[in-house]
Design brief:
The structure is a single chain. By secondary structure, this protein is an alpha/beta fold. The protein folds into 2 domains: 139 residues, NAD(P)-binding Rossmann-like Domain (Rossmann fold, 3-Layer(aba) Sandwich); 187 residues, Dihydrodipicolinate Reductase, domain 2. Helix content is 28%, strand content 21%. The chain has a 6-stranded parallel β-sheet with strand order 3-2-1-4-5-6, sandwiched between helices. Strands 8-7-9-12-11-10 form a 6-stranded mixed β-sheet. β1, α1 and β2 form a beta-alpha-beta unit. The protein starts with 7 loop residues before the first strand and ends with a helix.
Length: 341
Amino acid sequence: MSATSLPRIAVVGASSLIGAAVIEELRARKMRYAELHALDDQRSLGAPASNEEAKLSVGDVAAFDFSRSDLVFFCGRTALSERYAQAAAAHAWVIDGSAAFRMNPEVPLVAADVNPQVLESIGSSGLIALPGSASVALATALKPLHSLAGLVRAEVATYHAVSGSGRVAMDELAGETVAMLSGKKARGVAFGRQIAFNVIPLVDSLEADGASREERRLWEETSRLLDLPALTINATAVRVPVFFGHSLAVHASFERPVDLVQALDVLQRGSGLRLIDPESSAEFPTPATLAVEPDQVYVGRVRADMTRDRGLNFWVVADNVRKCAAHNAVSVCQILVNRCQ
């Protein structure tokens, strides 16, 4: 892409929740581009690519020539990224939101509000991995606190919305809710058991040591984002019957004593963050209220850890599809495009 040209953009997985959100985010920011291609596998051909404009229909990714693009978002299943992303990266910047390349040390892992400096090493093309939504929310909240007091460890319980597993899971929650309120049984297909009126202490699959893949990702991705290889994160990832908005209960330990007033101040000034003051009318963030705002990670219930001298407890909420996935992806895109202009 030259300094005088507009980018040619492709969105792979355009019919997914995140793909549609990326397209809507591009339009909301009024980003200028020469072309916009919505792509997916054959199961989604011809479907509208977003809620905003049905005219943009989904084309076949298998038939697309990636040399026609300058920037490609991968927003669908990991299998699509594994099959096409590296080939696309030979011609374009590839911003991959799947789990395919996140743990590859040769692929930059980027959250725009946390470590945008990593993008400085990217040339005119190449592969960029995006973290999972819970990792984005956690790292965004922890970064200013680490700068203040030196982060050592975090104990985290996550409350994952069903939209993290896509449209089918959302449809199942809605259908199960209606069924159970009508005196019928829940189907329990998407998560192996009912999700309506239930809490499931498992996100993704279990590994041999008993940890889930999501719990391991939360630790590894957050330590990479913060460039803290010695950081330890003890996580329990839980699925809850919420449509949008991941929540996290965080108990963080630091090298140095933490003054609560200073902690509130750095959180208030943190990039991509909004601190909810306990004296405000909002009181604290919840998925059904503030998490629907797409551009912020919300932090509330900030308090000193009464059991440790150098600890803080707090609550984090963020829209997993829009803020942590689509907004992050388009923010990375804008950093790359602005660098060329």
